[in-house]
Amino acid sequence: MQFERRGIRVPLRKLKHLDCGEKVSLVRRASRLYAQGINWCFSVIDHYREGLAHGSFLGSFMDYYTTQASYPLRRPVQEGDLHIDFPKVSYAELEDWEEETALGGKGPYKKLLPDRMRAAWDRANQKLVDFIVKRKGADQHLLDIVKGRKPSRWLDDLWKSKREVFCIETYLEDEDQLHLVARHLQEVAKEADEALLSLARGDKVRFTMEVLFPEAIICSIAALDELTYKEAEEKYLRGPPVHYREKELFDKTILKAARKRSAARIRAARDPPVPTP
């Protein structure tokens, strides 16, 4: 297994709430191989929660992590004094799985099959990344937006949004591609007028990811596929294709849950609880 320092990607359905019932067990298992990384993550979270409790910081965790408030904890990692490892899985070559492989390579597992659709999707998206980052083909469009010369529905949506935690459709699924585009857009965001940033409540992270990111992808789709902006926007909103195996697994999960609920209702009707004296 290859390692990298930026983090670990997992299927969305595998995510659990931080304070879920299995937390102790999951942390114990993960700490066998990644104790230093786990401890660092929890120290950042604890520091954020303490800031909220004492009133020294107000805002989302994303706001906290991208400001000076978290820099003392981020600095050792960024400067290389603290080395943190997380497992790296090539999702361009692997299919989603139902059973989780135990740490250390032992335990039950389901063989992962090649996801050729995902690999083809990433290869096609590389053209978009090159257009945005290398050719800077979307820069003029983005500069017109950040300078207020061109309207953006994404900026309007951000201005009207009351969400503290944001979740966006990135269109790109490869982490390295996302990283390259986001880093380039951060440079473009530096040109934004203060008045425009005020519409985003001064949040450059959300402005970059919720306004510049979709605008850049849509602009590149329109240019490379020879589409109108509206047609490119519709393609962007459709997002990545859903693999038939992924759909089949989702359907099975829903059906299994429905059967469990039905069986529970039948048992409850058949064996009513005995009243206590």
From TrEMBL:
<dbReference type="Pfam" id="PF20886">
    <property type="entry name" value="PWP3A-B_C"/>
</dbReference>
<dbReference type="InterPro" id="IPR048795">
    <property type="entry name" value="PWP3A_3B_4_C"/>
</dbReference>
<feature type="domain" description="PWWP">
    <location>
        <begin position="114"/>
        <end position="254"/>
    </location>
</feature>
<feature type="domain" description="MUM1-like PWWP">
    <location>
        <begin position="3"/>
        <end position="41"/>
    </location>
</feature>
<dbReference type="Pfam" id="PF20884">
    <property type="entry name" value="MUM1-like_PWWP"/>
</dbReference>
<dbReference type="InterPro" id="IPR035504">
    <property type="entry name" value="MUM1-like_PWWP"/>
</dbReference>
<dbReference type="InterPro" id="IPR040263">
    <property type="entry name" value="PWP3A_3B_4"/>
</dbReference>
<protein>
    <submittedName>
        <fullName>Uncharacterized protein</fullName>
    </submittedName>
</protein>
